[in-house]
Each structure stands twice: as structure tokens, then as C-alpha cells.
């Protein structure tokens, strides 16, 4: 008989300004994945929503690759696999769509093979597939996460911010691959720029832990990646300024971009409209999303073992 499980995984905002490749947050936008193991051999993959017609429906599908990674890890050999994806997270926008697919595949396959892999093992597998932990960690655990990786080992500290805020995400109509966004980064940076980021990343985490979000006004600047990626996102600084003018605490590139996200505790719709208008003034069509912090991470929402 078929076994199936359905999981929900949040989109994520990585870097959060100075926390390059280390800090991430989960947001209330979700992808759903249903995995079914059948007695009939073969692979069937269906994609609905974001990425329909674009995401591979064969062995190159990254969620399927994550499923297969679990099967290999635990020694499972199912006859057939049915994978159904329902996506709301925009692709190639810096909101962790690939991380969500990876985490969804790992979580679903682990559930159907007896949940033998720990969360820490799933995190390490997800990081190996994705290449860095800043998106996969919050997708897996929810909340805000700080991650470090060395020699294949990943350490992640999950925190629940002590104050409530809204993440206003301006979503441009154009996409930007992580590979292209990384190609513009320098191989080395000045010592003063590294020091600049260390202090701000530390204060960012402190502000989240204590709930003193007023400090976000001073800590969201970055010198390791945003100045170099600015050329790829027309009007970036104007969008940042428009958000702050409407009361936002600050704004950053979401992941590798091109989405820009502002953090606010007041008038999020006004902030979003201002950001979209600023993009339009620079010839870029965009819309905005209002996201709260997802505190659950990857969740099994349906399970059928009959």
C-alpha cells in the first residue's frame, strides 16, 4: 500500500544585512510538498504554483534529489515515488525557494523512512545540498537562526525574537540567481569592513534577543555583500530610503536578492507601497508581501501510513 506524507516549509530571509551566510529568518510564506511511496516503479513529479513549467519534473528536481539523499542515507529502496509540490515562494528572488524544496524533501523522506535522522543530521544534509546553512536552517527550525559550518559540521542556534515585527518584502518582477549574485563579490575585503560587520551582526542578534528593536536602525548596514550586489538591483538605495521614510527600522537585501526587505513595527502596508513606488521610479515593476516571523519551521501537516 502507498505511504504518503505532506509537509509545509516556510520561505526564508538570509543574511539580514551584516549576518552574511550566517543569520536567517523564517517568514509566513510557504511551500507544500506531498511525498508518496508506491508499489509501482517509477517517478512522477507535479509542480503547481510558483515554478510551474520551470522547475524540473524529473531526477534533476532538487526536492527529489533531497528525497533520494535520505533514501541513500538510511538504506531505503522504494519502488516508486510520487512528488507533488505546491509553491508560494517566488523563485530566484532571495526568499529561499531552493532551501524550502530541499528541506521539504528531506523532512518528508525522513518521516516515511521511520524518522531515523535527527534534526542536526537533516541540517547537515541540507547544507551539503544547498552549499550554505543560512536559508536551510530557518526553513528547518523556524524563528531566527545563527549558523556556522566547518568541515561538514553545522552548528545552529535558534532564537525567538523578543519583540514582534513585520517583514515587508518588495518583490521585483525580475529574478536573480544566487550564482550570479555571488560572482560580483570580491575574494577579499578590507579589515575595517570585516570589523564593521562583526559589530553590527553581534548587535543585530542582541537586539532580536532583548527585543530592543530600536537598535536595528544602527545595525542593518553591511559592507561584505550589499555594496557589491547593489548594481544588480536598480534603485536599491532609493527603496531602502523610502522604507525608512515611512517608519521602517531599516531595510536589507533578502538573501542574494533581488527582493528587498524592511523591518517595521508600524504601518507595514505604507512601507510596502513606498518601496514598490521607489522601485517603479527606477523602472522596475514590483509588488510587496507582508510576512510575520514563522516560528515553526518545517512541519508535517498530513500523514497516511495505511
Automatic annotation (TrEMBL):
Q: What is this protein called?
A: Homoserine kinase
Q: What class of enzyme is it?
A: transferase
Gene Ontology cellular component annotations, sorted alphabetically: cytoplasm
Q: Which UniProt keywords apply?
A: Amino-acid biosynthesis, ATP-binding, Cytoplasm, Kinase, Nucleotide-binding, Threonine biosynthesis, Transferase
Statement: the UniProt record of this protein carries the keyword Nucleotide-binding: yes
Carries keyword Amino-acid biosynthesis? yes
Query: What processes does the entry annotate via GO biological process terms?
Result: threonine biosynthetic process
Q: In which pathway does it act?
A: Amino-acid biosynthesis; L-threonine biosynthesis; L-threonine from L-aspartate: step 4/5
HAMAP family, from UniProt? Homoser_kinase
Source taxonomy lineage?
Bacteria, Bacillati, Bacillota, Negativicutes, Selenomonadales
Q: Which GO terms describe its molecular function?
A: ATP binding; homoserine kinase activity
Q: Which residues form the GHMP kinase N-terminal domain?
A: 61-143
Please give the PROSITE patterns that the UniProt record associates with this protein.
Answer: GHMP_KINASES_ATP (PS00627)
Q: Into which family does the record put it? A: Belongs to the GHMP kinase family. Homoserine kinase subfamily.
Q: Which residues are recorded as binding ATP?
A: 90-100
**Catalytic activity annotated for this protein?**
L-homoserine + ATP = O-phospho-L-homoserine + ADP + H(+)
The UniProt entry, under Pfam families, shows: GHMP_kinases_C (PF08544), GHMP_kinases_N (PF00288)
What does this chain do?
Catalyzes the ATP-dependent phosphorylation of L-homoserine to L-homoserine phosphate.
Q: What Enzyme Commission number(s) appear in the record?
A: 2.7.1.39
Location in the cell: Cytoplasm
Task: Using the record's annotation, list all stretches that form the GHMP kinase C-terminal domain.
Answer: 211-275
Amino acid at each position: 500500500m502507498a505511504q504518503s506524507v505532506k509537509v509545509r516549509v516556510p520561505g526564508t530571509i538570509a543574511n539580514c544585512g551584516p549576518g552574511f551566510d550566517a543569520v536567517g529568518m523564517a517568514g509566513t510564506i510557504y511551500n507544500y510538498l506531498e511525498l508518496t511511496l508506491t508499489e509501482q516503479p517509477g517517478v512522477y513529479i507535479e509542480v503547481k504554483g510558483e515554478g510551474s513549467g520551470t522547475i524540473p519534473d524529473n531526477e534533476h528536481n532538487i526536492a527529489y534529489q533531497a528525497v533520494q539523499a535520505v533514501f541513500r542515507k538510511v538504506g531505503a529502496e522504494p519502488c516508486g515515488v510520487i512528488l507533488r509540490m505546491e509553491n508560494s515562494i517566488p523563485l530566484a528572488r532571495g526568499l529561499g525557494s531552493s532551501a524550502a524544496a530541499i528541506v521539504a524533501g528531506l523532512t518528508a523522506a525522513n518521516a516515511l523512512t521511520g524518522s531515523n535522522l535527527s534534526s542536526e543530521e537533516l541540517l547537515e544534509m541540507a547544507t551539503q545540498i544547498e552549499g550554505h546553512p543560512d536559508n536551510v536552517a530557518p526553513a528547518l527550525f523556524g524563528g531566527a537562526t545563527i549558523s556556522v559550518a566547518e568541515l561538514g559540521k553545522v552548528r545552529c542556534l535558534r532564537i525567538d525574537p523578543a519583540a514582534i515585527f513585520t517583514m515587508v518584502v518588495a518583490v521585483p518582477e525580475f529574478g536573480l540567481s544566487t550564482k550570479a549574485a555571488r560572482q560580483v563579490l570580491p575574494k577579499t575585503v578590507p579589515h575595517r569592513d570585516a570589523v564593521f560587520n562583526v559589530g553590527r551582526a553581534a548587535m543585530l542578534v542582541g537586539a532580536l534577543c532583548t527585543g530592543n528593536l530600536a537598535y536595528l536602525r544602527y545595525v542593518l548596514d553591511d559592507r561584505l555583500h550589499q555594496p557589491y550586489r547593489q548594481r544588480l538591483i536598480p534603485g536599491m538605495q532609493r527603496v531602502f530610503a523610502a522604507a525608512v521614510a515611512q517608519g521602517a527600522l531599516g531595510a536589507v537585501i533578502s538573501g542574494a536578492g533581488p527582493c528587498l526587505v524592511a523591518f517595521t513595527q508600524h504601518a507595514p502596508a505604507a512601507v510596502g507601497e513606498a518601496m514598490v513606488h521607489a522601485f517603479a521610479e527606477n523602472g522596475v515593476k514590483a509588488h510587496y508581501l507582508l510576512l510575520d516571523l514563522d516560528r515553526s519551521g518545517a512541519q508535517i501537516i498530513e500523514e497516511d501510513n495505511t
